[in-house]
Amino acid sequence: MLNIRSYNLGALQTNAYLLTGADPKRGVIIDPGANPAGLLRGAEGMEIEAILLTHAHFDHIAGLDEVRKAKKCPVYIHPLESEWLGSPKLNGSLMWPDTTPPISTDPAEYDLAEGQTLKLLGLSFRVMHTPGHSPGSVSFLCGNDLFAGDVLFKMGVGRTDLPGGRERDLIDSIRGKLYRLDEEVRVFPGHGPRTSIGYERLHNPYVPM
Fold first, then answer.
1. Is residue 95 part of a domain?
2. For residue 29, which of 15, 11, 45 has the smallest C-alpha distance?
């Protein structure tokens, strides 16, 4: 059983997730955004097994180094965006100087790949490469819980007008991968409220079935 706590971090209200399984003292963090003090308080006393990144836009990695140094845990990212962690130009932090300082972090310890299964918290996390919002966007499926980053939102989708974005890829990722999941799968997006695959198949105006 996966226990999920959500934290809205930074100016763009990015959803960071703190996950625990049967052992409440072991956790996984997804997308540590800016000003992660609340997230770190939630993880106090925990051993964090991994930080999983859905992608490397600045609002999803702004708190990465602070969390990694505090918890001494490895970071996983898709190799298409591994260089983005150290490049304010690639991760977009140079584009919004009123919102964020330039962000550059240490490299990730591990690459992610399509179809990979991560064994964390005594559970299995399936890695799905879901490009479109960015070339290295991934989604993580654990049981009936999907962490979709900025690919699929409640009645919305990720923007594709940023460097590396491509609308055709985004639609293919959603229709060809995410919509093929069971309708009861719960979707935990990078911004906004959670939804479900069944709800989005019926109601998402940007990618109808």
1. yes
2. 15
Q: Convert the pLDDT of each residue in 95-152 to its tens digit.
A: 888 889 999 999 999 999 999 999 999 999 999 999 999 999 999 999 999 999 999 9
Determine the residue type at 168: R
Q: How far is residue 113 CA from its own chain's centroid? A: 14
CATH number at residue 44: 3.60.15.10
> Please, what sign has the CA dihedral across residues 68, 43, 99, 167?
positive
pTM of the model: 0.96
**Residues comprising the chain, all counted:** 209
* Domain membership of residue 88 as a residue range: 3-203
Cβ pair 150, 57 in contact under 8 A? yes
Eight-class DSSP state of 160: -
Amino acid making up residue 197: I
Count of domains forming the chain: 1
Sign of the alpha-carbon torsion through 65, 76, 6, 168: positive
